[in-house]
Structures are given as C-alpha cells and as structure tokens.
C-alpha cells in the first residue's frame, strides 16, 4: 500500500528577522561620546565669538542711537520753544556733574549758566550707559556741556560725543559729531579700515 503525504497545508517556518544594528537599549560607546563632545566643543568655539561680536555691535548701535535722539530732542526743544536748552552729564538726576557715562540732564537754561537750577524746567533725565561703555564729550573750549540756542545753533560749540567699549580693537566705537550750526551726524568708517572715525578723520577713542 502506497502512502502519500500532503504538504499543501504545511506552513513554512518564518524566517528569523535580522537583528537591527540599533535597538532601544543601544547607547553611546565611550569613543562615540568623546567624538560627540569634541564636535560640540568645536562648534561652540566657532559660534561664540560671532555671537559676542553681534551682541557688542548691537549694544553699541543702540546706545549711540539713543544719545543721538537725546541731542536731537534738545535741539528741537530749543527751536520749538525759542529757549536756551542745555545738556549736561549728571550722576544723580538733580545737578550737572562730570561723567557722561552716568547719564545726563536736558533742561531749559533760563539764566544761561549751564547749570540746572531749581526754578528751571527739566525736560528729560537720560539714563546711564551700560557699565562696559565709556562716554566722553569733547568740545571747543573744553566745555563739559552742550547748549542749543533758540535758532538751533550751539554757542560756538563744535564737539563730539564718543562712545567706546572694552574691546581694544576700537572696531565697536561710535561717535556723534555736532557742528556749530547744531547739525548732528553719526560717525562713519571713512578710510575703510573697519574703525569709525571722528570729525578729524582719526579713529574714535575715549582716552
């Protein structure tokens, strides 16, 4: 008697799945971790100077533009009100002092003595600059203040407000140049050396 075996219903054994190179329990080896940290350190060392440069540039631009608005406000107030208006440095928002880094006062100078007296109108108190910014004012006859007449002219004062920071390269330094007619302009890099210049064409310093 011949026997026949029917293989049609016999299920083939499933092939074993290949083991993945990566699984949930696979972590970093010491070598892989060291490489990853090294790459991170390199990228950070490249990125931080660029970030610092951008922040310093933005801070200086914001501060010099703020001082520009201060000077412009003083001049326009003098013209609109037909009054003598004075800007002077102030450390206490009450009287004029010597350091422009500490802030400033804008006031109507009725007696023209370039000092803020109690009876005079205070227009605005100017906040101090950031601690790493140095602000200086150099003007004709070494006057440590700036006065605008009712016609917008200064009292024969042509001067420069200089704004510097701690970077020794001078590349962030900025200035506001004031003419005797009261016109204002921001400093520029006139010789293309990457450092902005004052009215005489010299690199801006605050020393």
The count of DSSP E runs of length 2 or more, i.e. the number of strands, is 8
Please tell me the overall pLDDT: 85
Give the CATH architecture of the domain at 48-186. Answer: 3-Layer(bab) Sandwich
| CATH homologous group name of the domain at 48-186 | minor pseudopilin epsh domain
Account of the protein in words:
With 207 residues, the chain is an alpha+beta fold. The chain has a domain at 48-186: 3-Layer(bab) Sandwich (minor pseudopilin epsh fold). It is 25% helix and 19% strand. It has one helix at 30-81, and strands at residues 85-89, 104-108, 122-126, 133-139, 146-148, 159-165, 174-178, 184-186. The chain has a four-stranded antiparallel sheet, with helices on one face. A hairpin with a 5-residue loop joins strand 7 (174-178) and strand 8 (184-186).
What's the topology here?
Layout: H1 30-81, E1 85-89, E2 104-108, E3 122-126, E4 133-139, E5 146-148, E6 159-165, E7 174-178, E8 184-186
Antiparallel strand pairs: 1-2, 1-5, 2-3, 4-6, 6-7, 7-8
Brief characterization of the structure:
The protein has 207 residues and is an alpha+beta fold.
Provide keyphrases for this structure.
single chain; alpha+beta; four-stranded antiparallel β-sheet; 8 strands; about 25% helix; elongated
């Amino acid at each position: 008697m011949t026997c026949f075996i029917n293989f049609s219903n016999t299920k083939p054994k499933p092939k074993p799945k290949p083991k993945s190179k990566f699984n949930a329990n696979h972590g970093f080896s010491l070598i892989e971790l060291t490489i990853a940290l090294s790459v991170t350190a390199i990228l950070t060392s490249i990125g931080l100077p660029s970030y610092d440069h951008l922040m310093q540039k933005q801070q200086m631009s914001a501060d010099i533009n703020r001082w520009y608005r201060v000077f412009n406000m003083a001049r326009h107030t003098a013209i609109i009100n037909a009054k003598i208006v004075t800007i002077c440095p102030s450390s206490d928002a009450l009287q004029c002092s010597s350091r422009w880094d500490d802030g400033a006062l804008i006031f109507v100078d009725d007696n023209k003595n370039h000092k803020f007296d109690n009876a005079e109108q205070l227009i605005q108190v100017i906040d101090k600059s950031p601690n790493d910014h140095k602000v200086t004012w150099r003007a004709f006859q070494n006057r440590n203040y700036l006065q605008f007449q009712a016609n917008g002219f200064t009292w024969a004062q042509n001067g420069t407000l200089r704004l510097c920071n701690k970077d020794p390269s001078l590349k962030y330094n900025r200035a506001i140049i004031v003419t005797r007619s009261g016109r204002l302009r921001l400093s520029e890099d006139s010789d293309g050396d990457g450092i902005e210049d004052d009215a005489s064409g010299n690199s801006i310093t605050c020393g």
